[in-house]
Automatic annotation (TrEMBL):
PROSITE patterns: SET. It comes from the Eukaryota. It comes from Venturia inaequalis. Residues 15-156 form the SET domain. PANTHER family: SET DOMAIN-CONTAINING PROTEIN 5. This is SET domain-containing protein. CDD domains: SET_SMYD (cd20071).
Length: 373
């Protein structure tokens, strides 16, 4: 059977949204009808990438690159927002204001004029991602979007509102007034407390040593983080990252039954954000069929269990108790005394301050070298 070829043309669902002027926000994309979660809204080739820069004189190189574009592409680039107007490097500043890395770990960025029109919200309804299959940047609806609602993505994620606002002001030059940054003071305090705890849990889960020596506590933290995400209605790629972390914890300790469930949930949540043709979705579906094929499998036999040991007749609540080992591990780490671990960010000099959530390969990737009796 012939393999499916990546699309060569842009796919812009203009039947689902319009570009409109929005008071206080410039221009943005407004839904014209109800859009289901998992809908691909934009799949777009870059006008150009930073890989085309051939010398250290970046501004001059960008002028050369843009001049070589077709006239309509030149106009599209020059119409993009510049977060640093009046500077001596207008072309460089447009790239800094609108560029996206071609993947979470890529040092190469691209300009995608349609996706660049999607404004920010800390509670975004869309997720942008680079598709290595299509060689395009994509934007998917991560929850149902109603007619009249603005399409948004999160330029920065996590942390309490003042941290988010500070990052947005530094990188993009605006004061965020999104839904969760404009809550009444009492509700803002509650939300900030949850985001602060979520950040601490995520840092704790990211400790390879803890995953190795205290997997029960690491998995309990994954479960606690999932509850916080549900309370804050988070439906973006942070969910798939959480499920991938849980998968890695289980597969490292030879629990194939739970690992295959987490792998499937990771694939399902990622497909909503990136499409069924995402290379990471395909990979996670393969792990859901054969968890033992993962490089980290068998580092420990502490939780050894066959892949076919997934219970089939449990009620939903009982299945979740089994999955998260709630009845086995009653204790859960208190994070009150635990300092957060440092995190790496993917922010290149010529790219915007948009935080790209690391791909599934970025965390615990060296755990395949760990063997525990």
């Amino acid at each position: 059977m012939a393999s499916q070829q990546p699309p060569s043309q842009n796919m812009i669902r203009t039947d689902l949204f319009n570009l409109e002027a929005i008071p206080g926000r410039g221009k943005g994309l407004i839904a014209t009808q109800t859009i289901p979660a998992g809908t691909c809204l934009i799949s777009e080739k870059p006008l150009f990438t930073t890989a085309e820069i051939r010398s250290n004189d970046v501004e001059r190189e960008l002028v050369r690159i843009v001049k070589a574009l077709p006239k309509d592409s030149q106009r599209a680039f020059l119409s993009l927002h510049n977060n640093h107007p009046g500077g001596k490097e207008p072309f460089s500043n447009i790239v800094r204001s609108n560029g996206y890395p071609l993947g979470a770990s890529s040092e190469v960025g691209g300009i995608f004029p349609n996706i660049a029109r999607i404004n920010h919200s800390c509670w975004a309804n869309c997720q942008q991602a680079w598709s290595s299959t299509r060689k395009q940047e994509t934007a998917y609806a991560v929850r149902q979007i109603e007619a009249g609602e603005e399409l948004t993505i999160a330029y920065t994620i996590g942390g309490p509102s003042q941290e988010r606002k500070s990052r947005l002001k530094e990188f993009f030059g605006f004061d965020c007034r999104c839904e969760i940054c404009s809550l009444p003071a009492d509700k803002q305090k509650q939300s900030d407390e949850k985001y602060t705890r979520a950040a601490k849990l995520d840092d704790s889960i990211g400790s390879p040593k803890r995953v190795k020596t205290s997997p029960n506590l690491a998995l309990a933290d994954c479960h606690a983080l999932l509850r916080l995400y549900n309370e804050e209605r988070i439906t973006d790629n942070r969910l798939q990252r959480l499920y991938y972390d849980a998968f890695q914890i289980c597969v490292l300790h030879s629990d194939q039954a739970r690992a295959r469930v987490f792998a499937k949930r990771c694939a399902e949540t990622r497909a909503v954000c990136e499409g069924n043709d995402s290379a990471d979705v395909v990979e996670m579906l393969a792990y859901s069929e054969k968890p033992s094929s993962h490089d980290s499998f068998g580092g420990s036999t502490k939780w050894k269990q066959a892949a076919d040991a997934v219970p089939k007749d449990l009620a939903s609540d009982k299945f979740e108790e089994w999955l998260w080992r709630s009845e086995i591990d009653k204790d859960c780490l208190s994070l009150k005394q635990q300092a957060p671990l440092p995190r790496s960010k993917t922010q290149k000099d010529l790219l915007s301050g948009v935080v790209i959530i690391p791909t599934s390969q970025d965390r615990y990737e060296h755990l395949s070298d760990i063997h525990i009796l």
